[in-house]
Amino acid sequence: MRLRELLQPLISYELEGNRDVDVVGIEADSRRVEPGFLFVAVPGFTVDGHDFAQQAVDKGAVALLVERRLPALDVPQVVVPNTLFASAILADVLYRHPSQHLRMVGVTGTNGKTTVTHIIRHIFESAGRPTGLLGTVGGVIGDETFAVANTTPHAVEVQGFLRKVLEKGCTHGVMEVSSHALVEGRVAGVDYDIAVFTNLSQDHLDFHGTMDAYARAKALLFARLGNTYGDTLNNCKYAIVNLDDEYASILTEATVAPVLTYGLAEAANVRASNLVLTHEGASMTVTTPSETFDVKTGLIGRFNVYNTLAAIAVALVEQIPVSSIQSALATYPGVPGRCERVDEGQPFGVFVDYAHTPDGLENVLLSIREFAKGRVICVVGCGGDRDKTKRPLMAQTALKLSDSAIFTSDNPRTEDPESILDDMEAGLPEGAVYRRLVDRREAIRAAIFDAQANDVVVIAGKGHEDYQILGRTKIHFDDREEARQALRARLSETSF
Ligand SMILES: CC(=O)N[C@H]1[C@@H](OP(=O)(O)OP(=O)(O)OC[C@H]2O[C@@H](n3ccc(=O)[nH]c3=O)[C@H](O)[C@@H]2O)O[C@H](CO)[C@@H](O)[C@@H]1O[C@H](C)C(=O)N[C@@H](C)C(=O)N[C@H](CCC(=O)O)C(=O)O
Ligand SMILES: Nc1ncnc2c1ncn2[C@@H]1O[C@H](COP(=O)(O)OP(=O)(O)OP(=O)(O)O)[C@@H](O)[C@H]1O
Ligand SMILES: N[C@H](CCC[C@H](N)C(=O)O)C(=O)O
Ligand SMILES: [Mg+2]
Fold first, then answer.
1. Can you tell me the distance from the alpha carbon of 386 to that of 216, in angstroms, rounded to the nearest whole number?
2. What are the pLDDT digits (tens) for 83-123?
3. d(CA 320, CA 233)
4. Is residue 271 classed as helix, strand or coil in its secondary structure?
5. For the chain, which residues make up each domain, given as ranges?
6. Are 382 and 413 in contact (CB under 8 A)?
7. Boundaries of each Mur ligase N-terminal catalytic domain copy (predicted)?
8. DSSP state, 210?
9. 450 FRET partner, CA 20 to 30 A, in 80, 266, 434, 468?
10. What is the DSSP string of 368-407?
């Protein structure tokens, strides 16, 4: 595509050089530039991408998107105020606006995004609407899966993925939209039809600074929905918001689109009542302005009632028949690494879960306590190079809501694993009883060797992850495999 065509939707930019060069790709990492690419110079948190422009040109970049003009480079330079946002718009143009040809659902919130997007995809596909999915666990189109580096990747990856979704014949796209992505404009070129808010609680304060700024980041998704209600179905935009969350009004006030609320509160448009929560799942009655029906799901815990309601609300605005929603929920297999059972025939429960925030941990432990007949044993750690303020809170939650807490490493990244554990311990009261085992394998083993009949072991924080990041190295590590190995060893030694 010629540079002049690519730049068409940009409102304000300066360009020196030939507008007619042919651009075949866009890339913000000089190391991945190929001949014919436009290189995007991003002033990052660690280094400044402008310093790599020469390297990009040497590798064949035919144009540069920059925030300041760079001297002595013999390719056209497009100067814009914010290269991240501008590159997101250009990626949408390069991939020929895939989101405009799909019904696009974006799900944001601190916890539950992965779960809600997976349930939505399952309902859509069960109702004959092929749906591409993008999020923490990866990209999914039909039977194909694609690895991703981030929950919401860079704009070029997002747009390239959506183009694939469209080309594979999908009618819908559903994706997790992280607050980082919203602030950095990774989805600035995506035309969402439905925005969903799950909840907001403490996380990522290292990035956003305050809860207020974090909430405003989430609201960006809702601010972008237009007010085309009443148009053809393809143009209807909806905001779907958890009314029981204390931040709900920030989201509803941010949008001009019609709002459909969900929750347990009387006032919610899609409301659940008659909840029956067991170790096998949940059943509930769902009331909407026009009908009342029962649903059953294999997902455990009150928080999953919210996730289920969010997905039901989306399905309803997409006019999926209630019977289809009911049968899809009843057969939903669950999300990898979210309350995933590990069963080797032992007489106690073992769950691997992705709770990595104080609220996530509280929710999963409270849910498990509701049905655990014996003790709850919790193995948990906190990620390095991430929000430090959540560490003491997660340790307090684990101590308060479990009978035996074992603190260990999550992904320490470039931090000293022992000092992350020190941060966790700093929140604990004098005389608190817990164990500290920095080696995650040892911690999982200790929990499984400690468990007695009817106890429940919860291994929290890493869920589906099949790696551990130590320093800058990624090693293979999977909580489910580790639990299975420890269970086999235990069962070979102990007869219950
Ligand atoms: C805080 C954050 O958003 N960081 C992202 C950011 O990193 P950064 O600003 O430090 O990048 P940098 O290293 O300074 O580099 C600046 C620019 O120079 C370029 N560069 C760098 C070196 C070089 O040799 N050549 C070159 O061109 C880089 O490609 C980049 O464009 O830009 C990088 C390139 O796009 C991202 O990979 C990186 O995400 C990292 C991996 C990350 O872990 N982000 C997390 C915090 C994140 O985004 N998480 C959210 C939330 C998850 C959730 O809660 O659901 C997510 O969506 O995953
Ligand atoms: N609605 C919810 N409210 C509170 N906690 C939840 C909710 N849904 C899930 N959780 C907890 O949070 C963990 C992560 O859930 P999930 O992966 O769906 O969230 P996410 O928003 O995608 O997380 P991430 O920010 O890492 O992408 C789960 O394993 C569970 O412990
Ligand atoms: N999306 C979350 C995942 C955290 C998972 C946890 N295992 C960790 O590595 O901190 C984040 O980027 O903060
Ligand atoms: Mg996720």
1. 20
2. 999 999 999 999 999 999 999 999 999 999 999 999 999 99
3. 13
4. strand
5. 3-95, 98-331, 340-494
6. no
7. 24-69
8. S
9. 468
10. HHHH-SS-EEEEE---TTS-TTHHHHHHHHHHHH-SEEEE
373: exposed, middle or buried (Cβ count in 10 Å: 0-12, 13-18, 19+): exposed
Pocket probe mutation, ligand 2, options 107, 108, 111, max atoms within 8 Å of Cβ: 111
Q: How far does residue 199's CA lie from ligand 4's centre (Å)? A: 13
- DSSP 8-state secondary structure symbol assigned to residue 227: -
List ligand 2's pocket residues with C-beta within 6 A: 109, 111-115, 136, 151, 176, 198-199, 303, 306-307, 338, 353-355, 359-360, 363-364, 463
Helix (H, G, I), strand (E, B) or coil at 408: coil
**230 has pLDDT over 60:** no
- Could you give phi then psi for residue 175, rounded to 5 degrees? -145, 150
CATH architecture of 3-95: 3-Layer(aba) Sandwich (3.40)
Paired strand residues for 240: 196, 260
CA distances to 2, 3, 6, 7, 466 from 19, in Å: 7, 5, 10, 9, 46
Measure the CA–CA gap between 282 and 115, rounded to whole angstroms: 15
For the CA of 113, the nearest ligand: 2
Q: Select the CATH number that applies to the domain covering 98-331 from these four: 3.30.70.790, 3.40.1190.10, 3.40.50.970, 2.60.40.10.
A: 3.40.1190.10
pLDDT at 235: 60
DSSP assignment string, 424-477: HHTTSPTT---EE-SSHHHHHHHHHHH--TT-EEEEES-TT--EEEETTEEEE-
Does the pLDDT value for residue 231 go beyond 50? no
**How far, in Å, CA of 49 to CA of 184, rounded?**
15
Ligand 2 atom nearest the C-alpha of 361 is: 31
Model confidence pLDDT, tens digit, residues 153-173? 999 999 999 999 999 999 999
- ipTM at complex level: 0.94
Cα→Cα distances 195→5, 190, 311, 322, 446, Å: 30, 12, 11, 21, 43
